[in-house]
Amino acid sequence: MRHGKHRFLLGCTKEHREALMANLASALLRHGKIETTLAKAKALRPFVEKIITMAKKAYLAEDSAQKLHYRRLAITRVKDEDAVAILFNDRASEFVKRNGGYSRIYKLMPRTGDAAKIAIIELVLGDDVGYTKSKKRNTAKTKKSTPSKKSKQEQKIVSDVIEEETTTTPDKSVPKATTTKKKTTKKK
């Protein structure tokens, strides 16, 4: 049984979903950035990235028939010849050096009317490197280095010094503690 088949259903029929993705992709390719719900943005990302990959393959292809083939495949999915022309003619050269990750999603505050999660999806420039992640220090997984002979000797010397300090020798200048008996008197 194939589990996880239904990824982005968006609460509509297949035909409606295809038209929705085509319209969102067309707007994204024309404008470079659109604002939509988070679920639609997450569904749009793989759809648009496949179209951009087609444009990249067409840009790198030597054969004009192959270029035309990729353009026609993109038009069947996006259904907007002007948006596909913008992508294939102008923007395909930007993504040649980039291996995937052509779009980016930013989460925004929920919409005031229905509290739907809103996001901005935008095309990433070809030379954009993004932000650098901070290095996470994992103290539990750090390797403990085995001590070398020199450090073992140093440890022995330090432990000998500590033992000498803790062992006390009787000092004659310090008086010994004497016990005194208290005299008790009876009151009459």
Overview of the molecule:
The protein is mainly α and 188 residues long. It has a domain at 14-108 and 115-123: Ribosomal protein L17 (50s Ribosomal Protein L17, Chain: A). The chain is built from 5 helices and 3 strands, in the order αβαααββα. The chain has helices at residues 14-31, 38-60, 64-78, 81-91, 149-166; strands at 33-37, 103-107, 118-123. Strands 1-3-2 form a 3-stranded antiparallel β-sheet, covered by helices on one side. Helix 1 (14-31) crosses helix 2, helix 1 (14-31) crosses helix 4 (81-91) and helix 3 (64-78) crosses helix 4 (81-91). The mean pLDDT is 84.
The CATH topology of the domain at 14-108 and 115-123 is what? 50s Ribosomal Protein L17, Chain: A
Determine the CATH superfamily of the domain at 14-108 and 115-123: Ribosomal protein L17
One letter per element, helices H and strands E, the order comes to HEHHHEEH
CATH architecture of the domain at 14-108 and 115-123: Alpha-Beta Complex
Which structural traits does this protein have?
mainly alpha; 188 residues; three-stranded antiparallel sheet
SSE layout and pairing:
Layout lengths: L13 H18 L1 E5 H23 L3 H15 L2 H11 L11 E5 L10 E6 L25 H18 L22
Helix pairs in contact: 1-2, 1-4, 2-3, 3-4
